[in-house]
């Protein structure tokens, strides 16, 4: 049942994003920022953890999950450092995921040749 819940929640998130891409004039970068901010907002309101417990990877893998990770890091660092935790928390929490994306993107660029779409 966990797989089914992850599949349908992740699929709904992807379908909503696809609707945004097709029905609005928002650029993909803005939609991605909207997803991260939405994930952070849901986390701040305490609504993301129940969704994460229900859907597992269906909720943690999309960009909503990255917003949740950033907000968790900020919350932890604010508890430890106070005001400065607002700035340090997101960087510490998101460092591993961002570094992995950069490293794997670079490795993929070494293996594959990029070219313009026709």
Number of strands: 0
Ends apart, CA distance between termini: 43 Å
Oligomer: single chain
Give helix % range. over 70%
Task: Characterize the biggest β-sheet.
Answer: none
Q: DSSP helix count?
A: 6
The radius of gyration over CA amounts to 16 Å
Can you tell me the residue ranges where pLDDT is under 50 for at least 5 consecutive residues? none
Overall residue-averaged pLDDT value: 89
Query: What fraction of residues sit in β-strands?
Result: under 5%
Number of domains: 1
- Shape by Cα distribution: globular
Order of helices and strands: HHHHHH
Class from helix and strand fractions: mainly alpha
Protein described:
The chain is 82% helix and 0% strand. It has 118 residues and is mainly α. The protein has 6 helices and no strands. It has helices at 2-23, 28-44, 48-55, 57-60, 63-81, 85-111. The protein has one domain.
């Amino acid at each position: 049942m966990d797989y089914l819940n992850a599949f349908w929640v992740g699929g709904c998130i992807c379908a909503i994003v696809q609707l945004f891409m097709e029905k609005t004039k928002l650029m993909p970068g803005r939609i991605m920022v909207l997803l991260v901010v939405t994930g952070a907002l849901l986390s701040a309101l305490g609504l993301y953890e129940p969704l994460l417990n229900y859907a597992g990877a269906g909720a943690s893998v999309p960009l909503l999950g990255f917003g949740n990770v950033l907000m968790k890091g900020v919350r932890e660092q604010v508890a430890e450092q106070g005001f400065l935790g607002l700035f340090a928390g997101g960087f510490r929490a998101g460092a591993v995921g961002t570094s992995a994306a950069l490293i794997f993107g670079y490795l993929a660029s070494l293996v594959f040749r990029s070219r313009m779409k026709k």
